[in-house]
């Protein structure tokens, strides 16, 4: 996929590569620049490769910069990226992007690794007056859930489609939204995840009376 050919890439040192579940990694690298919570970087194994984009998944004041990604077995970047070790070099662009989620009150909605920018925002202490809804297929895919719960309390809600637990609501996040009687229509809604999730959620929100302009999406195509 031709995602980001024009950005100049800079060599950075890998600090750690943490396997969070079977196919999801949290990789930290040296931080060569400042960024705004919610921004993305382009990432490549070699400076001549066509990079892929990743939301920054760490706070602005952290020593290192981290990304969260799932491995696409047939993908070009994520299989080699999943086996990098501390001390290896990868290539990243300067941060860019406008998914800064500055307005509140807001509802943040994420599926799977789409939680990444919201982790950055929470770690950057930019999560006032927000409600975070996170959907995942299995219980092990609520990345950083303990931290998010600690920081957001009841304003962090988990929706799990295939497993049950006392901390999660069973079923799809979209079903919850559809069945909600009083979704705040003046909130900003920030959506992050797959294109299908964004399409489905946007349709539901608009049907519930949320203005199109109040729905801002970062799509992981
Ligand atoms: C703004 C933005 C932010 C993003 N942030 C994140 C993030 O934080 N975390 C994250 O995990 N992802 C994120 N993504 C997605 C990410 O950029 C990559 O697309 C993803 O990680 C896959 O990269 P890859 O090189 O491994 O796969 P690719 O090589 O790009 O392949 C993508 C998919 O296409 C399939 N495929 C490849 N070649 C073929 C072919 N010839 N025929 C059929 N199928 C094929 C692969 O099986 C794979 O499933 C983001 C995307 C965008 C646009």
Account of the protein in words:
This protein has 221 residues and is of the alpha/beta class. It is 18% helix and 32% strand. It folds into two domains: 10-92, Elongation Factor Tu (Ef-tu), domain 3, CATH 2.40.30; 106-219, Rossmann fold (3-Layer(aba) Sandwich). Helix 2 links the parallel strand 7 and strand 8 (130-136). The termini are close together. The chain binds flavin-adenine dinucleotide (FAD). Flavin-adenine dinucleotide binds at residues 1, 3, 40, 52-55, 67-70, 72, 74-78, 113, 116, 218, 220-221.
Distance between the amino and carboxyl termini: 9 Å
CATH topology call of the largest domain: Rossmann fold
The radius of gyration computed from the alpha-carbon positions, rounded to a whole number of angstroms, is 17 Å
Bound molecules: flavin-adenine dinucleotide
Oligomer: single chain
How is the secondary structure organized here?
Layout (H helix, E strand, L loop, with lengths): L9 E12 L2 E7 L9 E5 L7 E4 L8 E7 L7 H4 L7 E4 L13 E6 L4 H8 L6 E7 L8 H8 L3 E5 L7 E3 L2 H7 L8 E6 L1 H13 L7 E5 L2
Parallel strand pairs: 7-8, 7-11, 8-9, 9-10, 11-12
Antiparallel strand pairs: 1-2, 1-6, 2-5, 3-4, 3-6
This protein binds flavin-adenine dinucleotide.
The site of flavin-adenine dinucleotide has 22 residues, from strand 4 and strand 5.
Summarize the structure.
The chain is α/β, with parallel strands linked by helices and 221 residues long. It contains 5 helices and 12 strands. It has helices at residues 78-81, 116-123, 145-152, 173-179, 195-207, and strands at residues 10-21, 24-30, 40-44, 52-55, 64-70, 89-92, 106-111, 130-136, 156-160, 168-170, 188-193, 215-219.
